[in-house]
Structures are given as C-alpha cells and as structure tokens.
Amino acid sequence: MERIFCSTNGYQLSFDQARGVAEIIAQEGNEYSLLVSWCDKEKGVHSPCCLKCEFDDVPGWEVYGVNHEGRLRISFDDDRFVFIYS
C-alpha cells in the first residue's frame, strides 16, 4: 500500500477539510477511488466502527482497509486523521 504523509504548520485542519484533501489526492490518476476506511484520532472515532479485530497491534479499521483493496493510506499530522482508499 502506498503511504502519503501530510503535515500542516500554522493551521489545524478539520476532519472534513482533511477528507477533502485526501479525496483529491486519491482521485489523482484514479477517478474511481473509494474511501474504504478512516480514523479521526482526535475524536476517537473510526469507520468501520464495529470491528474488534486487531492484528499485530494494527487497529481493526486499518486491517479492514488493507483487506478490502486499500491501495493508498493518507495520513495527516502524525495520524491525527487517516484515510484509506481503494
């Protein structure tokens, strides 16, 4: 899986802003990209949220994203927000 790390200085992105930027990045060269899973570390929420399956200390939402054709992991500000796209 390709990993992209985004860092902001002097401005704190909201979840919606980060998701919008992530979508633009994911669609570059792949107009059919799909958001498979995500995490908002600040609020302590993620999707899918019903998963209890961690694997080697990797959270369930991320395992789900990898196992459902996740090709791109986009992280903002040290995993404050993470988006996995197919």
Question: How would you characterize this protein structure?
Answer:
The chain has 86 residues and is of the alpha+beta class. It has one domain: Dna Ligase, domain 1. It contains 2 helices and 5 strands. It has a 5-stranded mixed β-sheet with strand order 1-4-5-2-3, sandwiched between helices. A hairpin with a 4-residue loop joins strand 4 and strand 5. The longest helix is centred in the N-terminal third of the chain and has 13 residues. The N and C termini lie close together (10 Å). The model has no long low-confidence stretch (mean pLDDT 88).
Provide the number of structural domains.
1
- The CATH class is Alpha Beta
Structural class call reads alpha+beta
* Number of DSSP E strands: 5
Please give the alpha-carbon distance between the first and last residues: 10 Å
Here the CATH topology equals Dna Ligase, domain 1
| String of helices and strands | EHEEHEE
Largest sheet: 5 strands, mixed
Shape: globular
Mean pLDDT, as a whole number? 88
**Which architecture does the CATH hierarchy give at level 2?**
2-Layer Sandwich
Tally of individual helices = 2
Alpha-carbon Rg, integer: 12 Å
Strand content: 25-35%
Q: What would a concise description of this structure say?
A:
The chain is an alpha+beta fold and 86 residues long. The chain is 24% helix and 28% strand.
Notable traits:
about 90 residues, alpha+beta, five-stranded mixed sheet, 2 helices
Summarize the helices and strands and which ones pair or pack.
Layout: E1 2-6, H1 15-27, E2 35-40, E3 45-47, H2 60-67, E4 72-76, E5 81-85
Parallel strand pairs: 1-4
Antiparallel strand pairs: 2-3, 2-5, 4-5
